[in-house]
Amino acid sequence: MDVRDLGRITYEDALEVQLALVEKRVQGYIPDTLALAEHFPVLTLGRLAEERSIIDRVYFEERRVPVVCSNRGGKATYHSPGQLVLYPVVDLGEKKKDVAFYIDFLERTVARSLRRLGVPAERDGSRRGVWSGGRKIAFIGIALKRWVAFHGVSININNDLEAFSRILPCGESGIKVISVRQVLGHSVDMTRTKEIFTRQFVSDLQSEYSCETRSIEYHAIRGEVKKSGGGNHGVEAAGTFRKE
């Protein structure tokens, strides 16, 4: 399995990376791949988003936060630095053609990772996502192309949550959100956090889909991908580690 750390990157550039990876995965040129990212502030609207999902447009306009329509499932969510986003590019066609099972899998692996960080996290049988103390801490939205899944999960780690009060997260009223930092009372190291989520994801993919991942190839880019886009999209590795 390939793991690509995109660093801090615009939402549009991350999507460009994903689409390139999806095409290569569909054609069988690359293995399943997990991309990790943090985004500059952006409000994204999934395929099911409604106008009412944005409560306070002025808030985002004053801060020049772009609003991006996305081809992922789901409704409205917000990304900003300090939030970890997992973008698995996984071929379900060679594993199990069951979208609900895959989303269940994503919820389970994220909840396990959060518990390894010391955060009490659980799934809610009636609502998607991952929750901690009745507040939502992780948000899921995926897309498929020829049974290759992409997009994925955003997890509130050290990010500011103010913007969530200006939208209806996932299009639902009454949802309160929380972060790892709020639960623990302090920020956590993002490098260690990424490692925890990566290793848990790979382990769970192996066990829940009964597939073999012989090694993890880790690729990281140097620095940030600037807001203007262009340049390195995280496809070339600046450093790698291999886990047998």
Mind explaining what this structure looks like?
This protein has 244 residues and is of the alpha+beta class. The protein has a single domain, classed as Bira Bifunctional Protein, Domain 2 (BirA Bifunctional Protein, domain 2, 2-Layer Sandwich). Helix content is 26%, strand content 30%. It has helices at 11-26, 57-62, 99-116, 180-184, 190-208, and strands at 2-9, 33-39, 42-45, 67-69, 76-79, 83-91, 122-124, 127-132, 135-145, 148-156, 216-220, 239-243. A 9-stranded mixed sheet has the order 7-8-9-10-6-2-1-11-12, sandwiched between helices. Helix 1 links the parallel strand 1 (2-9) and strand 2. Helix 3 (99-116) crosses helix 5 (190-208). It is globular.
